[in-house]
Amino acid sequence: MIKFPKPIQNLIDQFTKLPGIGPKTAERLAFAFIKWPAKEKEEFAKVFSQINGSITHCSVCHNISEKDPCTICSDKARDKAKICVVAEPHDLAAIENTNEFKGTYHVLGGVLEPLYGITPDKLKINELLAKVQKNKISEIILAFNPDMEGEATMIYLKNLLQPFKKIIITRLARGMPVGADLEYTDEITLSNALKNRKEI
Question: How do strand 79-86 and strand 103-107 relate by DSSP bridges?
Fold first, then answer.
């Protein structure tokens, strides 16, 4: 096995720490980075160094932000009675990019994964309950990935929030994505598409 010079190996090792990046991809990224002009490398390093000092977490919704509270939480036009609960900041960004939701958010910081030590106390669940108790909330949207962990988190939160009788608890509709073929769609997705059918 070939040994790379230490600075290159260190760079490869850093890239492998990123999610979804294996050793081969990390190697390609490292060698692509080496080919960049010195000015671009400096700019890249500068952007990385700025992250530590300029990024914070919003104390209201727990999203990543440049200021506290974030622009969404400080927007007076937002419907404060509606909260969309998501696992991670990138989930918030995906929903926000649709321009469909005009309420506020709550970022849990993950989903329940007991096998990996992610239990309710590791997530921002108590903060969500405190928010619900202090404010007049009309609806909570549980927006999680439709996988085992997302479903488990949804059920757990639904049970916690059920005592708040005046709050409507909803989830994202599930069904077939645009451009999908019926014959290649899995049974669960197809079943959800049938359950969530609408009049046309």
Answer: parallel
Does 69 sit behind a cis peptide bond, omega within 30 degrees of 0 on the bond before it?
A: yes
Decide if 66 contacts 56 (C-beta within 8 A).
yes
Give residue for tokens 């995906």.
94
**How many Cα atoms within 13 Å fall on the side-chain side of residue 179?**
0
Q: Domain holding 137: CATH number?
A: 3.40.1360.10
Q: Does the residue 184 lie in any domain?
A: no
CA–CA gap between residue 26 and residue 8 (Å, rounded): 10
Nearest to 73 by CA among 88, 58, 56: 58
- The pLDDT tens digits for 127-151 are 999 999 999 999 999 999 888 899 9
Residue 112 to residues 19, 67, 150, Cα–Cα distance (Å): 19, 28, 8
The CA distance from 195 to 200, in Å, is 15
Mean pLDDT of the chain: 90
Length of the chain in residues, anyone?
A: 200
* Residue 85 structural domain: 75-171
Which pLDDT tens digit goes with each residue over 82-127?
Answer: 999 999 999 999 999 988 899 999 999 999 998 999 999 999 999 9
Outline where DSSP puts E strands in the chain: 56-57, 64-65, 79-86, 103-107, 139-143, 168-171
